DNA sequence: ATCGCAAATGTAACCGGTTACAGCAAGAGC
DNA sequence: GCTCTTGCTGTAACCGGTTACATTTGCGAT
């Protein structure tokens, strides 16, 4: 049996649809016993309002669209967790759409029009023109770690340059010299900035930068570590641009009989939950992506409430120095 | 500026809204050059169809509602990842709604009516009457690990009893006798069934069951391990009802100077990605929740395509014996 | 030029709600 | 008893699309 509509309720209760709407939405100007009658009829029919229709006439959906690259690995899952926590606290639903690496993904943004009140986009490796072309005109949109496409949108930007620089400082301070960087994919904003910060710090210390290119997946950490094992003069530190690559490398080093951090230090980036649990615990830069996600929802909600916000909010990652870089497992 | 509507396009192109609709949706019966004209006008105006309105008249949303307990910990994140992968492969969007432990969460199901074509519900600790009361009548709904409320819905059920039994067998086979079970919260279906399987196997071997009650969170693993450390005759194996509790306990044991698995074996349940990475790697039961999530989407899609499906599909977890229970770190 | 028919286009109803405005009844004030 | 308010209820327009059906157009055949 199909769902009952407001007209079915009106007919069964012998009132007009306007009255049903008012009675069920608590609009005050309905006689008390009539209101109760309508409510009981609605309950008896198992009436549930059609949210789609409702939001069409209200021009309000109580939903936020979320666009992420993918859900692989803990990083974006953590982001989504933070978004979700804040959204449900505010009674908002989430409409999810992942780009899965392919640039076509932006087109799914079109399908969000009319279904959401605001948008949260996290897309570090999207083509700027593409993003700009698909960015909806009349929808509050919070950008997290996206290319610079507009000064009109509230943004979160991670200070990758300073953070990567700080990580090199940490490694140099603990006596490392041959520090290799395993980067994320070219074209990814976070990846490029981390390379820049790494290179600047290396150069400042008179060390020569060496960058291997990875793709943020565990396997590319595995591959990079195997490559390093073959070197005649082996690196004494590997700084990976995210935690999963660092962990992939860590496992390979240990399996090859090297001890971490004595033979080689390993550091990551992001501080995903997993980082604390590997042995030795992984040194990394804490980004706090779940908190950023939650805050993004708050900013979107504030804009919906009428505030204006075009601020670029900078996030400064914090170093988490753990056993994978600081020797003497004291 | 507000978004352009189909009427704006029609006016600007000097045609009727019907023609615009047909031209943009590729309905064939539009003169070729008129179609192009309409398309260029639409592009010039930055017209994007209002998906909400579209799905109201089509009675089709191309979205699936997903209801999970929460996104804490990797288990449900993995489930969502599987669901998401299959959904985007099929061009479906996901509308997310978490219950966050409180039973009120089911009410958010109401807000899904009219917004989604089908529903996937994973709710091992929901009150059956509540679930039944809020289960929408006319929406394909796939249940994963839910209480028995209906024979009319496609379901996935995890064979927790057999799996917990098998884990006890594994521990007994490796010489353990004082095997303690750290359960999930009372009222949670998975938790109760794992207790049952554990108890049955223990009794069969003439061993006395001992169950500590946890809540599936890491902290309750920590607490349980601390409690066990105080025992005079200490347990020689801890079988936790999920991986996070097992890992919490593992850390405490090691910090207290015990060696795992020599002094005490530790086993979990779920095989979350993290389980492979702790040291020693965690023995666990692989549920394959991401695959289940993906399959749930496929079943929902099949029902939407007209198939009928009221099958209860049983999932048999596979044991992953790793170093946390099998001695001799060979 | 006229007719017939197929193809293209327009008109209007519909999806399921909300709400401005109109209508109506009852009570207050004279 | 009559008018004026006040407050409840109903009618109908609207949100932005789709599409059945009616109408117009274009073209070939006569």
UniProtKB/TrEMBL annotation, chains A, B:
<dbReference type="InterPro" id="IPR028082">
    <property type="entry name" value="Peripla_BP_I"/>
</dbReference>
<dbReference type="InterPro" id="IPR046335">
    <property type="entry name" value="LacI/GalR-like_sensor"/>
</dbReference>
<keyword id="KW-0804">Transcription</keyword>
<dbReference type="Pfam" id="PF13377">
    <property type="entry name" value="Peripla_BP_3"/>
</dbReference>
<protein>
    <submittedName>
        <fullName>LacI family transcriptional regulator</fullName>
    </submittedName>
</protein>
<dbReference type="GO" id="GO:0003700">
    <property type="term" value="F:DNA-binding transcription factor activity"/>
</dbReference>
<dbReference type="InterPro" id="IPR010982">
    <property type="entry name" value="Lambda_DNA-bd_dom_sf"/>
</dbReference>
<dbReference type="GO" id="GO:0000976">
    <property type="term" value="F:transcription cis-regulatory region binding"/>
</dbReference>
<keyword id="KW-0805">Transcription regulation</keyword>
<keyword id="KW-0678">Repressor</keyword>
<keyword id="KW-0238">DNA-binding</keyword>
<dbReference type="Pfam" id="PF00356">
    <property type="entry name" value="LacI"/>
</dbReference>
<feature type="domain" description="HTH lacI-type">
    <location>
        <begin position="4"/>
        <end position="58"/>
    </location>
</feature>
<dbReference type="InterPro" id="IPR000843">
    <property type="entry name" value="HTH_LacI"/>
</dbReference>
């Amino acid at each position: 049996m199909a769902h009952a509509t407001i007209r079915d309720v009106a007919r069964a209760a012998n009132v007009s649809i306007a009255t049903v709407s008012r009675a069920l939405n608590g609009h005050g100007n309905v006689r008390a016993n009539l209101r109760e009658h309508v409510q009981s009829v609605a309950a008896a029919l198992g009436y549930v309002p059609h949210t789609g229709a409702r939001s069409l006439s209200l021009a309000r959906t109580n939903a936020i669209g979320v666009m992420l690259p993918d859900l692989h690995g803990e990083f974006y899952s953590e982001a989504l967790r933070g978004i979700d926590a804040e959204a449900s606290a505010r009674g908002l639903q989430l409409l999810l759409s992942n780009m899965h690496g392919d640039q076509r993904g932006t087109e799914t943004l079109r399908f969000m029009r009319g279904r959401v009140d605001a948008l949260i986009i996290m897309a570090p490796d999207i083509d700027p023109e593409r993003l700009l072309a698909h960015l909806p005109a009349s929808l509050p949109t919070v950008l997290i770690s996206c290319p610079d496409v507009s000064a009109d949108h509230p943004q979160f930007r991670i200070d990758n340059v300073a953070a990567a620089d700080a990580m090199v400082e940490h490694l140099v301070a603990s006596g490392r010299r041959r520090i290799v960087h395993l980067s994320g994919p070219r074209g990814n904003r976070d990846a490029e900035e981390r390379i820049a910060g790494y290179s600047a710090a290396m150069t400042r210390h008179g060390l020569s930068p060496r960058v291997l290119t990875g793709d943020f997946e565990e396997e590319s950490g595995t591959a990079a570590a195997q490559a390093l094992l073959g070197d005649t003069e082996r690196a004494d530190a590997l700084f990976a641009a995210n935690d999963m690559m660092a962990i992939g490398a860590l496992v390979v080093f240990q399996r090859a009989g090297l001890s971490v951090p004595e033979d080689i230090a390993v550091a990551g980036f992001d501080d995903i939950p997993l980082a604390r649990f590997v042995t030795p615990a992984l040194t990394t830069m804490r980004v706090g992506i779940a908190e950023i996600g939650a805050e993004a929802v708050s900013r979107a909600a504030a804009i919906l409430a009428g505030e204006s916000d075009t601020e670029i909010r900078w996030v400064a990652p914090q170093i988490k120095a753990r056993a994978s870089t600081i020797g003497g497992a004291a």
